[in-house]
Design brief:
Distance between the termini: 22 Å
CATH class of the largest domain: Mainly Alpha
Number of domains: 4
Largest sheet: 4 strands, antiparallel
Strand order of the largest sheet: 6-7-1-18
CATH superfamily of the largest domain: Multidrug efflux transporter AcrB transmembrane domain
Oligomer: single chain
Number of helices: 15
Radius of gyration: 31 Å
Shape: elongated
Number of strands: 18
Length: 509
């Protein structure tokens, strides 16, 4: 027990090495790893090492900031602005918490939004192009969910900032072309269920009765005879409201549906309509069993019905939209930037990266041996440095961070800086004369560690801005470097100190 207490840093290093080996090599070890992970490891590769497409585009919209609006004014202001601009209510977002108003349309200018707000008693501080950070984060989450639910299988979504200060949403997917990726995120995915019926004045009215947010559970696409659909479960509060509205509009009785998609005013009967991205994709009468449930009030007890479309492709898009939610706005693909890499070329990059890593290890090992010419000093130093790389690889595999060339550069930088720190420790302890006692060793080690800690803090401070400024590949390089520095300072450097103490003191004895 005393031996473990004295060498707990070495034990901690071994725990990290074993855990990293499990995360790196054990199939299915990392939570959230995509199924069918290929290769000998659990590492996930980005498009630079696996091939595929990266698509970057800014969200469509303008934002007024510093708008003094109360929470009870949000709905009214959004409705007034949508009417003024001829837009749908979902194209306006008013947030009292952040004092912002966003308009998700290319057809509204900054001056028009400024004037519209001033006419309604609001004086915004600034009006600018782009959307708020909260909206971008919502879009990133929705796109990430779409990739997970779609046939793309895997991919990454993030925000990046250009040199001109514009913020883009960056979407990467392996083994896919630009058109496939754009098709997935081209539409907002707004789903509405509408009730179509003839009003008392003879006009045909379509009224929204359910939004995508009113649905809590969505089934998979299935054939429903001549159409395709998904079973949806309505939330409790929305189910009660839907039941009351369907009774009010006469859907609690046997009826027929004759909906004219090209000219809705020539429609007749009562139709339950499925709208996807502003387009009616299916219309049908309410089946008798569902009408009876509306009439008896039993629908709210088991609020499940089938939302249908005319094709399997539309049904699949409907399923994904309901499961992942809708995008607040579209992306401006007129300003898109794409990068596509052939998988064969990416495989060559991956092989070359491995060769470069091996060369870096051999070069560092050779210089260390030439420096000390003592295997008892050089070998533990090299093994400790390699364990640091293994721990870093295990971390990357565990969090399923896609590796690109910038991350490989970070690994090489970690190898170099790690060995530099170990050399500082060895020189401070071995080059100042005989180490007679453990106290002498500890004093010298502490002095060296202060130098290493200061250098690590400087590196972290210097790299930190790159991690949150959204500078694309530079962010990946900074993240790998910072994690490598932290692993070194907290785990591997102290462990090497214990190894060196054992070697030095045992030699003196």
């Amino acid at each position: 027990m005393s031996l473990l207490r004295e060498n707990w840093r070495i034990a901690l290093l071994l725990v990290f090495v074993v855990g990293s080996g499990i995360a790196l090599f054990l199939p299915g070890a990392p939570p959230g790893a995509p199924s069918g992970q290929s290769g000998m490891t659990n590492l996930q590769y980005g498009i630079q090492l696996d091939g595929g497409t990266r698509l970057q585009a800014p969200p469509v919209g303008i934002t007024a900031e510093g708008v003094d609006v109360d929470r009870n004014q949000e709905t009214e202001l959004a409705r007034n602005l949508s009417q003024a601009f001829g837009l749908q209510p979902i194209d306006i977002r008013v947030a009292a918490g952040s004092n912002t108003v966003e308009v998700f349309s290319k057809n509204v200018s900054q001056s028009e939004l400024q004037s519209a707000l001033e006419e309604r008693g609001h004086d915004p501080e600034t009006v600018r192009d782009g959307v708020t950070e909260a909206t971008r984060n919502d879009m990133v989450e929705v796109i990430r969910n779409r990739i997970r639910e779609s046939a793309l299988g895997s991919g990454t979504v993030s925000t990046i900032r250009t040199a001109g200060g514009q913020t883009f949403i960056s979407v990467s997917a392996p083994d896919r072309d630009a058109d496939e990726l754009q098709d997935l995120i081209d539409e907002r995915g707004v789903v509405r269920i509408l009730a179509g019926y003839e009003a008392e004045n003879g006009t045909y009215v379509t009224t929204p009765v359910l939004q995508g947010d009113d649905i809590t559970d969505v089934g998979n696409v299935r054939s429903t005879g001549s159409s395709f659909g998904v079973d949806v479960t309505v939330a409790d509060g929305a189910a009660d409201r839907l039941e009351d509205e369907m009774v009010e509009y006469g859907f609690d009785q046997r009826t027929f549906c004759n909906y004219n998609n090209e000219d809705p005013q020539n429609s007749s009967g009562r139709c339950m309509l499925t709208e996807l991205n502003g387009e009616i994709v299916f219309s049908a009468r309410v089946r008798q069993g569902l009408a009876d449930l509306f009439a008896s009030g039993e629908f709210s007890e088991n609020p499940v019905f089938t939302s249908s479309t005319n094709s399997r492709e539309q049904a699949r898009e409907l399923e994904i939209s309901l499961k992942t939610g809708s995008l607040a706005t579209t992306l401006d693909f007129d300003q898109r930037r794409t990068q596509t890499l052939d998988p064969a070329l990416a495989e060559r990059f991956r092989f070359n990266s491995l060769v470069v890593g091996i060369i870096a290890v051999l070069a560092v090992s050779g210089m260390v041996y030439l420096r000390y010419k003592q295997p008892r000093v050089a070998l533990p130093m090299i093994v400790t440095a390699m364990s640091e790389v293994l721990i870093l690889l295990g971390f990357v595999a565990l969090v399923q961070y896609p590796l690109n060339l910038s991350h490989i550069a970070g690994f090489i930088a970690v190898i170099g800086t790690g060995v530099d720190d170990l050399i500082i420790i060895a020189d401070e302890i071995l080059q100042q004369g005989k180490v007679a006692t453990g106290r002498v060793f500890q004093n010298r080690f502490r002095k060296a560690f202060w130098v290493i800690g200061a250098a690590a803090a400087t590196t972290i401070i210097a790299m930190s801005p790159l991690t949150f400024l959204g500078l694309g590949d530079l962010s990946g390089f900074a993240i790998v470097t910072i994690v490598g520095v932290l692993v070194g300072v907290l785990v591997t450097r102290p462990a090497y100190g214990d190894i060196l103490r054992y070697l030095v003191l045992s030699e003196e004895e």
